[in-house]
Amino acid sequence: MNRPNRRQAVLVYLLLAVVLIVFLTPIYIIASSSVKPTPIMFQKPPAMVFTPTFEHYTQLFATRPFAKFMLNSLIAALGSTVFSLTFGSLAAYAISRIRHKRMNDVAFWILSMRMFPPIAVVVPYYIIFKASGLLDTPLALIIIYSTANIPLTVWLMKGFFDEVPRALEEAAAIDGYGLLQIFWYVTLPLAAPGLAVSAVFCFIFSWNEFIFALMLTGSNAQTVTVAVMSFWSSDAVQWGRIMAGSFIILIPGVIFVLTCQRWLVRGLTMGSVK
Amino acid sequence: MSSIELKKVVKRYGAVDVVHGIDLEIAEGEFVVLLGPSGCGKTTTLRMIAGLEDVSDGELSIGNQVVNAVAPKDRGVAMVFQNYALYPHMTVRQNMEFALRPLRLARSETDRRINETAVLLGLDELLARRPSQLSGGQRQRVAMARALVRTPDVFLFDEPLSNLDAKLRTQVRLEIGKLHKRLGTTIVYVTHDQVEAMTLADKIVIMQDGHIEQTGSPQEVYTRPRNRFVATFIGSPAMNIVPATISDGKLVGDHVSVEIPERFKKRVQAGQKVEFGIRPTEISLLDGAEQATATARVEVTEYLGDEALLDLRIGSQELIAEVPANQCPAEDAEVRLRFNPEALHIFDAETGMSLENQAR
User: Is residue A99 part of a domain?
Assistant: First the structure.
């Protein structure tokens, strides 16, 4: 009994180690390269021992308004997340609760919004935003990211709302609450894990997005992903700054996921019915 | 407290009627039990009273006000759900508080009501717990407390005991009975358990296939069932039904012949096809020379302690008799039986209606 278990455990840990190496190696390369002096950055084999330097970071912030780009990214990502969660969960609630034979079609129609390849719609978007004066504003990015995030939120949240027992809402209705109050006080709190998952997906997608940000923003609303790429010019590739910028980009996503993690608990509706 | 009145109330899903124009009057303070097999429309009827289902046709009034178009929250009703429907993200106290919040009471009044109700239902030690930390019986009491704390005009119970074990069920049943005596609130209670119905109800409403089969006190529905369905549905084990023909002042069936009780004599005519019913407790075993109603073979005996149930065969007919355990015969024995003529029920073979209650 004991022996096979042990062998299994060893195997599991070995597998985990392989997976971790695959996922963490790029991050290690980014992190270590961002503090390597430029001359030894491409040494082969890579230099493992060196005196770390923060010159790339200082240059990053000195040559470009990188803090502003960070803020732009944050506004676009958080804005789209809040927007998508608000309208996505309301739509999901309607789809989950309204009994109509065409409701599935509505749900699929919403999902189809996500199926456009970005490159195919970016030019029409450009024309629309130019005409409406939204070009190079964070609002443009919030709107575009939300068209991608809302379908995702709707589909995720619908699943979570389906799991909330109807009897709870009926009890609240008899207790004297209206539809939106029931949604806010009863249904939504019980779907909190779904909200957390949706938030993570929305935030990460918006934070990492590149193509729309590249085409639709200029100096005013530029995001970090675009800013980092701007160190790759036809004359030179400034690897040190790219690495430093990339490492900074990683941080908010990690913080956001860790923050949401405490809501990612299961069994929230336990004990409500039966 | 409020009276409730249903006039020709219909519930329709698409083209299918599940409740067929029922009429029902519930007086103020009355404890009414809707009883029937699954799918008989009793829960749908309750949900219409609560306002959780629309009334498709007819008129529903609570306290002399037509409420067809009134939202559940404005009907002055409180409901205990079959699965309790406690808010899992709130403690017991918060569950009760949440039910009170729309009433906009003063803080002190809210606290007073919660504490009073908690003491009444023995929940005062559990106020800080969440539903997931409670046993089934405790959850049930919380569900009742949440309804009670609002002091509604009408209480609705939807099979509140069906998720409890047998012992707890008896105990909570008693508590509900006491609660009604104490508060005097109008109660509509749905169950498929006839013991609950018989013990709790002032009035039982027996339903089948979306129709009301009979309305009456527990005694009435037991002793004067209006039709064969009610007769066999109420009472356990069920009433025996024997097909028979009227001949020479007797009910003659397969290997059975019973004198027609006096009260039926004028209501039947020779040659009429009927069915007569006899409860298992009204069949006794004969050991002397008295004239027997029938002779039967004992197929199976079931010992219950004080009583024994006998599965009897008379000709092609199977009957159940309940006799004192000390009289229990051996299996396969031939026994002579007497049916208590005063306890006989006679039903029309075609309509199933009791011949006794034809006037109603």
Answer: yes
